[in-house]
Q: What sequence folds into this?
């Protein structure tokens, strides 16, 4: 079992990498910005490098020695390359070079700023590089700085030798005077024990004199040359920069890397799910469909040339073959937050899709705060069958309500043309929304889906805005989440799943949609063959105040009109 799990994870890794790369491409403006910055930096490097010439010299260092061919001599221990490099970059060397070049003291810092000294690994070589805008001047200054370093190092070694010789000479002079005094004393004595003692002292003094004299002689015999110049600077024939084409290429590559890095950081800290995989992981359910741009605000089923209608049919078939849905045939459609435009459109189109398969479908609008479906759909009155029981509302603003009276106005019929027809239980404004949603009347209404040929689709207000959907989960336990990945956060989807599962429901999956940009033309205009005939509403269902009555289309005067669903635009909702 564990081996199978590891194999599945290994197979998923390439797909996850491809998905992450596709998500990075969503931030094209960040990647383009990085490329722009890289190209600007490359252009600056190419332009500035075209006016810069580099002249180089090499100096191989050596330690002072009287016998440079002695096999026991360890030069690498006598020379500290790091210290020598700092000496070459010091101000004293720059002052000596400036004096030799005829420059003033105020130009020393400018001369020093163009010098670079490096030490190749595993060598005793100092590599001097000087950058200037003129090739002749670059070579002249490089040679001057190299000679100034060699002369300064030689003076330092000679000064060190002079100090040591003086110290040894100061030790030798008193011993020589004492030896002369002993020689005089010995001449005035005859043989005896006293003379023997003086001879012994003189012998010790002579040994000490010989030792000190030998050291002084060795120091004076040392060759104090600190190193040899093995390459003199010559005027360079070409600029030191990489050239404008190469600099632009390198800048572009660096810019692409920088843009991808910034886009990846933006993707990591982006709270919105940027792909269907993110939505599926957040709700722990499949993404049943992705609606075309701008189609979430229109009723599309019944149009023969609609891509959105086919997507709704696909969602309906996937739900029909889902074991969790097939056992109960009831689904609750909700949105995370915001308006109900998208969830109402998905619920209505799913109802039409199920009706197209021959099911007896009931669409229940469980929005008891701002109901609007009955005004947006082309509906007609119907007899009051078993979809709703009991008599309806009385007069007054909310009607003569008793506990659990919704739905009291019965069922309306929505004609979907060739797709068939389905029932609609419109929402009504009530005084106590929780009590109406949990009433026995609603339970009996939803129980109609127990009939094998019946399907109930319930649309409720957003889960994170009201708890109305959670009040229905115990009876409509299959929940379909409708969301726009650009406007919802992963934390919201996770919270919705936790609320639904905690209330005893199951997330069947999610449907994603993308709202068109304001002022855009994402939704194509409908031709004459897509028009919907307005079916006369009952007389007791007058248009709301301020709503313009829509003209009726007569199929005799307009042969292209068909009996189906009227397209609902975002402005209507």
A:
């Amino acid at each position: 079992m564990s081996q199978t799990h590891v194999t599945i994870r290994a197979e998923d890794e390439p797909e996850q990498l491809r998905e992450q790369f596709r998500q990075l491409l969503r931030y094209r403006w960040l990647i383009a910005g990085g490329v722009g910055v890289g190209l600007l930096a490359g252009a600056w490097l190419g332009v500035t490098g075209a006016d810069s010439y580099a002249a180089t010299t090499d100096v191989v260092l050596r330690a002072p020695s009287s016998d440079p061919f002695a096999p026991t001599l360890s030069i690498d221990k006598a020379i500290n390359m790091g210290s020598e490099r700092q000496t070459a970059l010091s101000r004293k060397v720059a002052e000596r070079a400036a004096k030799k070049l005829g420059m003033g003291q105020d130009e020393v810092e400018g001369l020093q700023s163009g010098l670079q000294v490096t030490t190749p690994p595993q060598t005793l070589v100092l590599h001097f590089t000087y950058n200037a805008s003129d090739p002749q001047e670059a070579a002249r200054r490089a040679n001057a700085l190299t000679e100034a370093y060699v002369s300064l190092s030689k003076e330092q070694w000679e000064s060190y030798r002079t100090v040591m010789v003086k110290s040894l000479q100061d030790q030798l002079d008193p011993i020589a005077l004492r030896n002369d005094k002993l020689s005089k004393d010995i001449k005035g004595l005859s043989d005896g024990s006293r003379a023997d003692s003086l001879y012994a002292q003189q012998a010790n003094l002579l040994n000490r004199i010989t030792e000190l004299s030998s050291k002084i002689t060795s120091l004076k015999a040392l060759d104090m040359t600190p190193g040899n110049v093995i390459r003199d600077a010559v005027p360079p024939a070409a600029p030191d920069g990489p050239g404008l084409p190469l600099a632009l290429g390198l800048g572009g590559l660096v810019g692409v890397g920088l843009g991808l890095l910034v886009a990846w950081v933006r993707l990591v800290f982006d709270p919105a799910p940027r792909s269907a995989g993110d939505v599926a992981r957040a709700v722990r359910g499949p993404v049943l469909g992705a609606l075309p741009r701008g189609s979430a605000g229109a009723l599309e089923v019944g149009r023969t040339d609609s891509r959105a209608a086919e997507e709704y049919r696909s969602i309906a078939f996937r739900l029909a073959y889902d074991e969790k849905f097939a056992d109960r045939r009831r689904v609750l459609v909700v949105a995370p937050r915001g308006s109900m435009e998208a969830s109402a459109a998905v619920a209505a189109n799913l109802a039409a899709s199920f009706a197209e398969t021959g099911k007896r479908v009931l669409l229940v609008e469980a929005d008891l705060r701002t109901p609007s479906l009955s005004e947006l759909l082309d509906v007609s009155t119907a007899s009051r069958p078993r979809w709703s029981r009991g008599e309806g509302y009385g007069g007054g603003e909310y009607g003569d309500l008793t506990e659990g009276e919704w739905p009291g106005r019965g069922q309306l019929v929505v004609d979907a043309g060739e797709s068939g027809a389905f029932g609609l239980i419109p929402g009504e404004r009530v005084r106590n929304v929780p009590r109406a949603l949990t009433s026995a009347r609603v339970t009996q209404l939803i129980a109609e889906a127990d009939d094998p040929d019946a399907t109930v689709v319930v649309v409720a207000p957003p889960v994170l805005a009201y708890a109305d959907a959670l009040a229905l989960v115990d009876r409509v336990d299959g929940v379909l989440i409708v969301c726009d990945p650009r406007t919802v956060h992963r934390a919201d989807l996770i919270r919705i799943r936790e609320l639904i599962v905690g209330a005893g429901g199951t997330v069947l999956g999610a449907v994603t949609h993308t709202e068109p940009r304001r002022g855009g033309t994402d939704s194509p205009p409908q031709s004459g063959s897509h028009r919907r005939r307005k079916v006369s509403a009952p007389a007791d269902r007058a248009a709301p105040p301020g709503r313009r009555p829509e003209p009726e289309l007569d199929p005799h005067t307009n042969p292209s009109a068909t009996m189906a669903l009227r397209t609902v635009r975002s402005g209507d909702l």
About this structure: Residues 66 and 218 are 7 Å apart (CA to CA).
